[in-house]
Amino acid sequence: MLVFEIVIALLLGGAGLAALSRRVGTPYPALVALAGAVLALVPGSPELVLDPELALTLFVAPVLLDAAFDASPRDLRANWRPVASLALGAVVLTVIAVAVVVKAMVPEMPWAAAIALGAIVAPPDAAAATAVLKQLKPPHRLMVILEGESLFNDASALLIYRLALGAVAAGGVLGWSAVPTLLVVTVGSVLLGVVLSRVSLRINAGVEDVSTAVITQFGSTFAVWMLAERLHLSGILTTVVYAMTISRTASVVTPARIRIPSYAVWEVATFVLNVLAFVLVGFQLKGIVARFDRETWWEYTAIAAVVTGAAILARIAWVMGAAAVNRWRQRRSKSSPVTLSPGAAVLVGWCGMRGIVTLAAALALPTGHDGVAAFPYRDLILFTSFSVVLGTLVVQGMTLKPLMTRLKLDDDGEVDHEVRLARVETLRAGLEATQDSPGTEMATLVRRRYELQLRRARQLLDEHTLTSSGRPSASPWGPPTADAETVRAAMAAGRRKLAELRANGTIGDAAFQQVEQELDWSELDLQQLLLAESPG
Which pLDDT score, from 0 to 100, does residue 317 have? Predict the structure, then answer.
């Protein structure tokens, strides 16, 4: 009961810290991490050990799916070079740097365990950075690179992590023999993600109840992850492919009355999981810190500080070096590849805050129960991992806003322009769909409304200004009258046009999601009118 009371109190505290973080322009995980650190030092707080096999599934699967669902394949294709560079090169360099540093400081630690620590702290958490950057509106391309990196650096880091765990269990080290395994795991994960997305779409298409739909979504997410792990594939890569594939058609098969509340539930769930991850790490650190003597405390603190510095510097060195090489190649070949400016490279290099994936991977290390040998130096690795998360969130997270302000990387207006264009095209398609509708009073009202909205949307497109529209409302569909058919035809035409604009690359997913949300609210608003006009 005490643990439950503490968790509830910290969830409420997390909500307060999130509100405070928005005011001061700091990622809320930074403040939550500080709360977790305080929890580990509070006398009388309990020690709680989470099942290692549950940690990655519980904390990473839903958070990763939520991020991958919003990813834009068009934008990722356009920026695949910097995304791949960060997801592979920066991760590998960080793993090597951390492994070498910790092996030098703790010579008795096996290389596989040192590599596991490097893999744990290698993947940055883009959510922490984008939470701040979205308030400051940087160029859209930087957001694409950071969010795209976060999808794939988790996969590459955790593949190395899994191999390191296997090497520890086998008493060996990583070598070239692991390459075929990596290839099989990568290809198998991609194929499994695509297949499972088709199955999930068929299941979800028949669900009409909101609560059932949300439970099905969460259940499917965990099922995808667990099936991939049972098949010895990458749960992260499978989940990313699954989410990105399903998002292509989910907007067509999922009605607005289900999509709007489900999005709200997912947002709350990811927040709760982030808070709980820091809480559970705090509980586990409680037992670890209690076993420290003064000498061990200083030794572990020194190792954690050096590893944190190595993780930060490795990313900065890779980003700055890769950007400089690309600019040099651009000048030599006189071509126009997409490169990062020096200011953009500084920002991307500094956005290396670690988060929930690092915490979950550290919690997932074997604890030594039920006949399973404890992972070597588990206490040191868990302490160091949390220190890296805390250090990067506090040092980098709290300085990101002033750095962004100093660099003056302004919004390029790309998403705003695509939003305005999508509004015009979807409203035009909806208006055309009402031309052959019966001349009832409701049909005339719908056409008139579309005409006014289209006129305003064209004005905004010409003026290059952006406003938001829509207001919360929720009601079921009215009876199947001719007026309802008019509304359905208009909304369906608008949605088909919006999907077409995304499919042919005219707009990206950021614009698609914003206009889709506006269409959802508009659809619910029109449904309210139908309900009010319907007899009985």
Answer: 95
